[in-house]
Amino acid sequence: MKGVKILLGDPKKALIKLSIPAMISNLVFTLYNLADGVWVAGLGSSALSAVGIFFPIFMIFIALSVGLGIGASSAISRRIGAKDKVGADSTASHALVISLVVAATITSLLIFLETLLRIFGAEGEVLKLALDYSRVVVAGSVFLVFSNVSTGILNGEGSTKRAMYANVSGTLLNIVLDPVFIYVLGLGIVGAAYATVVSMMLTSLIYLHWFLSGKTYVTPTFKHFKFDGKVVFDILRVGIPSSFSMITMSVAMVFLNLIIINYGGPEGIAVFTSAWRIVSFGFIPLFGMAGALTAITGAAFGAKNMENLKKAYYHAIKIAATIELFAFTLIFLTASKSAVLFTYSELSANIYDELVIALRILPSFLPFTPLGIMTVATFQGIGKGEYALAVNILRTLVFQLSFAYVFALSYGFYGVLVGITLGNVVASLVAFFLGNFTIKALERVVV
């Protein structure tokens, strides 16, 4: 009940208490992502490019599972706010059933992997490496989906600390296994894939143990499971738009990769992918706070408490913007040092100068990002997944892509980086306007 009490208490305090565990979890995952890139960099720029080309596809898998988890989190928190424990349990059970269907769908894509990778620009040695890596990851996708949906369930009940323990355990194992599988066992890029799958399996087993032993407030059970279309609709109304929101990022990444290849070649892909791993550190507090904000605003909306909803939304933006300003400054000032992480090998040293410049351009949008991400999180919390989707489409497919293409025409590879930055800034400002408008409209109808 501790997480539930926090969830229904002072929104400002809840935001901090529920965000910190999620931030720690995201920090460890980002460290893994960085470490994974560093170890793969030792295999050469072709290996980095292979992972970079598969990345948009992998992002689609993550989007489907995380989106479903967000849908479960929103639906569960709203039921907790309305004091409907039975409904929250049923929602969790339905979410896990849906996760198995999603996992089976992802695994079936093994048949089309080579075709997909070719469409995304892979060829020659890069294609071979990308295939070796992706086949293992796709085969183990059931663990990816289960763990992300389980994270959503625990976030929905305010148990972000417990979710942190499970995710950090798996991620730390991944960090340890990467060099062992890649270099000690001599598996190369396939070793990185095996390390990823084994770590996701551990996280899934931890969640499964908690659910079966009744250590969570929400109790998913299948003993007397009865399909309820209304529950499924409530999960998917937020889950599907959330998934599509993240998928638009992958789609945008595909087109960005094509633009980058055209203006920067395979080395451009390696530069962008490596720079993005560093910039991703700036998203750690944002995504942690966004997950907490979805649950808090969901509970407030379920309890029809618009005052708590507003407090949580504006306070989240204020704190996150301050953090992101610091993140931008830090990444900008340490660009020359950070670039060494991906260029220590003779095979990848040729991208050093471009990587330093990329690390000084891309993070410029970070201080504006909270305006968009916190708005999206609030839309998800109140069950308006379609609003969140609209905001992300504007950011990724409209502003980001169009700006990147237009600037690339005049300034080449660096123009792509500038376009991505400006596109994100404009989209964040538009999202904040829509968030304010929606909250004021809700105040007039929610009693």
SSE layout:
Layout: H1 2-8, H2 11-41, H3 45-81, H4 85-107, H5 113-119, H6 124-139, H7 141-156, H8 160-184, H9 189-212, H10 229-279, H11 283-302, H12 306-333, H13 335-338, H14 352-361, H15 369-381, H16 385-445
Helix pairs in contact: 1-2, 2-8, 2-11, 3-4, 3-6, 3-7, 3-10, 3-11, 4-7, 5-6, 6-9, 7-8, 7-9, 8-9, 10-14, 10-16, 11-12, 11-15, 12-15, 15-16
Describe the structure in your own words.
The model has no long low-confidence stretch (mean pLDDT 86). Helix 2 (11-41) runs parallel beside helix 8, helix 2 (11-41) runs antiparallel to helix 11 (283-302) and helix 3 (45-81) packs parallel to helix 6. The chain is mainly α and 447 residues long. Helices cover 83% and strands 0% of the residues. It has helices at 2-8, 11-41, 45-81, 85-107, 113-119, 124-139, 141-156, 160-184, 189-212, 229-279, 283-302, 306-333, 335-338, 352-361, 369-381, 385-445. It has one domain (2-445). The two termini are 27 Å apart. InterPro entries: MATE_fam (IPR002528), MdtK-like (IPR048279), Membrane_Transporter-Flippase (IPR052031). Keywords: Cell membrane, Membrane, Transmembrane, Transmembrane helix, Transport. One of its GO terms (molecular function) is xenobiotic transmembrane transporter activity. It is found in: Cell membrane. It is a multi-pass membrane protein.
